[in-house]
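Sample entry (291 residues):
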Amino acid sequence: MTRLFSYLAYAFFRLLSFLPLWLLYIFSDFVFFIIYRIIAYRKKVVNQNLRNSFPEKSSEEIRKIRKEFYHHFCDTFIETIKLWRISEEEILRRCVLKNPDFFEPYKAQGKSVIAVTGHYANWEWLSSFALHNVGDFLPIYKPLHNKVIDKMYINIREKLGSKTLAKNDTLRTMIGHKNQDHFTVTAFIGDQTPNKKNLQYWTNFLNQDTPILQGAERIAKKLDQAVVYCKMTKLKRGYYEYEFIPITDNPKETEENGITERHTRLLEDIINENPSYWLWSHKRWKHKRNS
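Predicted structure, serialized as tokens:
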């Protein structure tokens, strides 16, 4: 039954992708009503995350952010499904790269790049970066247990030319590209929650003691790849822009955890600018130090 349901969901989402975005946003409003007003999807998690992150904000401010988050959350889902059938012209019009020549110096040096970002705005639409033909764009992802839905997301993410990279294959694949002199931009999601065996570095993030993954920094130093941050901004419904911000061109010369701290602070600043567009339903603080 689970497998049948998965295939039905796959077919349903495939059909949805053929609809224009204006119609999909109507569907998104309906989904918002269901998950916010009726199901209250992870509402306790969202409330706790917001209250702990912004102790200075009033209850009314928290409610406003929470409601805007759920609206945005539903929109990002249908926008991701739309990637399956969106035209190159439309996605480039709706998701604009502000500094398209940013990587030219790196390509000239033959120095591949690690781009760190977070679950902010619509990170899935960053797959459109591949259309700029800078080099191989390798977004890292964690495979889903459901193979049918996992295949669906791979198809969606690779539709515009990205080459998805399963988390456990990251280092091996990056070394392979390096040995073949391929210029790559590998995308790390920097706000993933580490598993218990990787609770090695903690810092204060959004007013809370938070474990941070060190993978981007460690691989950058091992392979001597530059590190940048990808800042994405939501302009209005269905429209985004993004830019790349340098962190370091010489990772081996940076202090221990310096790269990790830098991309964490950049994300924190972005969230504080407009909190509604971060993934507040994510159980980011489920681990405690020395637990």
